[in-house]
UniProtKB/TrEMBL annotation:
It holds the Pfam family NIL. InterPro entries: ACT-like_dom_sf (IPR045865), NIL_domain (IPR018449). This is NIL domain-containing protein. The lineage of its organism: Bacteria, Bacillati, Cyanobacteriota, Cyanophyceae, Nostocales. Gene3D superfamilies: 3.30.70.260. Residues 10-84, 133-207 form the NIL domain.
Length: 219
């Protein structure tokens, strides 16, 4: 008896506009955890506390059925989808795409604690505050890593729920990207994810300004 194997589509490029009411929901994280997709963020603009929609340019890879289901999920949320196409069909047009302006002050380094060689000590201090299942940080995606789905891998490799609360990633690969992330998971998962980011050599800052216990974002 033969079985039908899932069909993989070529990567799909889509710009999604996320309504303000979903800014505190891990929409992109759920594309990975619920549908088994690989999602690479190619460009993004999301301002924390802003009433306007945020937008993300995504390269989405996976089985055809899961891709279809994930797009239906986004549309059900009222997330506007544009530029849906097979990736190699739209690459030639990317230079002519319109990208909203990204505020320059979003890409300035915040005065937080840099986690490099001493990140383990800082992580233990964070855990000692009682935040054993939540970590808030700012992550710099260096320009050499724009083609690597780093945030997607935090979900697929380490089982985290990742909410992007602010983002500034210019489509120009000469610039670094910045993401404010709200990470949910067990202490061991959070620790392992920081080790992974350390191995990649990506700058990280803990955000100590939001120590709270709201757990509404966990699936």
């Amino acid at each position: 008896m033969s079985t039908t194997k899932p069909v993989n589509f070529d990567p799909v490029n889509s710009r999604i506009f996320v309504p303000q009411r979903y800014h505190r929901q891990p929409v992109i994280s759920r594309l990975v955890s619920r549908y088994g997709l690989t999602v690479n963020i190619k460009a993004a603009s999301l301002a924390s506390g802003n009433d306007s929609d945020g937008w993300f340019d995504l390269e989405i890879s996976g089985h055809s059925q899961e891709l279809t289901s994930s797009l239906s999920y986004l549309q059900g949320l009222g997330v506007n989808l544009v530029q849906l196409a097979i990736a190699n069909h739209i690459q030639s047009n990317q230079n002519s795409q319109f990208f909203p302006n990204i505020e320059s002050n979003q890409t300035q380094r915040k005065p937080e604690i840099l986690l490099k060689t001493q990140w383990r000590e800082e992580f233990q201090q964070w855990i000692s505050t009682g935040q054993t299942n939540r970590l808030r940080l700012q992550l710099c995606i260096l320009k050499d890593y724009h083609e690597k789905p780093i945030i997607s891998e935090l979900v697929s490799r380490y089982g985290l729920t990742v909410n992007i609360t602010s983002a500034a990633l210019n489509p120009n690969v000469q610039d670094d990207g910045w993401f404010d992330l709200d990470l949910w998971g067990r202490t061991k998962q959070l620790h392992s994810s920081l080790r992974y980011l350390e191995q990649l050599g990506l700058p990280i800052w803990l955000d100590w300004s939001f120590l709270y216990s709201d757990r509404n974002l966990i699936d």
